[in-house]
Amino acid sequence: MTTVNDTEHSHDLRIGVIGYGARSTLATHAHKPGEGSRVTVVAEPTQRGKDLARERHGGDVTLVDDVDQLLAEHEVDAVMILAPDYAHAEIALKTLGAGIATFSEKPMAIRVEDTDAMLVMAKQKRARLYVGHNMRHMPVIRQMKKIVDSGRIGRVRAIWCRHFVGAGGDFYFKDWHAERAKATSLLLQKGAHDIDVIHWLAGGYTRRVSGIGDLAVYGDITDRRDNTDRRMWDWYDAENWPPTAQKEMNPVIDVEDISMINMTLDNGVLASYEQCHFTPDYWRNYTVIGDAGRIENMGDGGGDQIHIWESRYSGAGRPDAVEVIDRGDGGHGGADPNLVAEFLRFVREGGATDVSAVAAREAVATGVLGAESIRNGGVPYDVPAIPEDVRGYFDSGQA
């Protein structure tokens, strides 16, 4: 395993970035020369991505084509995998196999067996693994978590999440996200966030899942185009409305654009998640019901509100208390810079983190089996547990 370079740039961690596309802004939070970390090498196959990396990180950054070249020719202290979802596992098994601390953007992988292989490899090589579930750092989620943990609404008994994906047609149905072979289901790309949050708020993991869903709208659109020569912001148009008027969709569309899953957690909490990609609005609504009250977020950004009901005298629009959601600095309400900061601290020091690799696996497993249920008539599936020795290793901080 490579070690921290103690002579250059005030002991900066040397960070390798693999994939420089839609989530490449995360790498900018790790590039702080002289302040603890710097991006030294970027592996990216496209010239456009290479040019963007050079623009952001300067002339000193080395550009290579792929992870194999990076590992063969360069020493780094940690890597950030920001490649498309279907590439996460293959890349991570190489970096973890080399003993390098690894950040994998979420979802951890698109198959359960790949997530389990990543956990086992990290344990075998004692290589620190961290998954980019940035919503655990979003103010709305952290504030709801604090309320739940305070006991104010009693013991959590149920959680409901409605996810309105108003930009779904532009974000997820014009490139590889629309293909089962490359995404498995949007219960991973989008839903893995929310499944992870449900698990975190509930204090447990899904052990049985069932669902219904459909490709209700976008599959009927015949205007198709191969968009591999473009990126999302090249085709995004906020004026695209209604969803049936979308154009230049991906040639293959076989993932659902509306999905609903029900989950039974290992601690008895019941949960549901609903995701729709053809709504006009774009936000998440969580309801957490305890045996002494409930909370619900009205909006998920800074300045929006969390409503708290604690008595039978309250009602619709009349909560007993209101908490305003904090405004953070940086992407996703400040979640992105805080996520990267926690990863870099973890690389240096180890120990517990708010983000959990075990939880990331459980989110993928729930999403994958939820999609299987949707595609097989709603039959419930049992979610296999992680072996105790593997879970124990990660729960102890990968020590």
Automatic annotation (TrEMBL):
Query: Keywords in UniProt for this one?
Result: NAD
Gene3D superfamilies recorded: Dihydrodipicolinate Reductase, domain 2, NAD(P)-binding Rossmann-like Domain
Q: Does the keyword Repressor apply?
A: no
The membrane spanning regions, by residue number, are none
Q: Which domain of life is it from?
A: Bacteria
Q: What is this protein called?
A: Gfo/Idh/MocA family oxidoreductase
Positions of the Gfo/Idh/MocA-like oxidoreductase N-terminal domain: 13-133
Where's the GFO/IDH/MocA-like oxidoreductase domain? 141-296
Q: Which organism is it from?
A: Brachybacterium epidermidis
What the entry lists under SUPFAM superfamilies is as follows: Glyceraldehyde-3-phosphate dehydrogenase-like, C-terminal domain, NAD(P)-binding Rossmann-fold domains
**Record keyword Magnesium present:** no
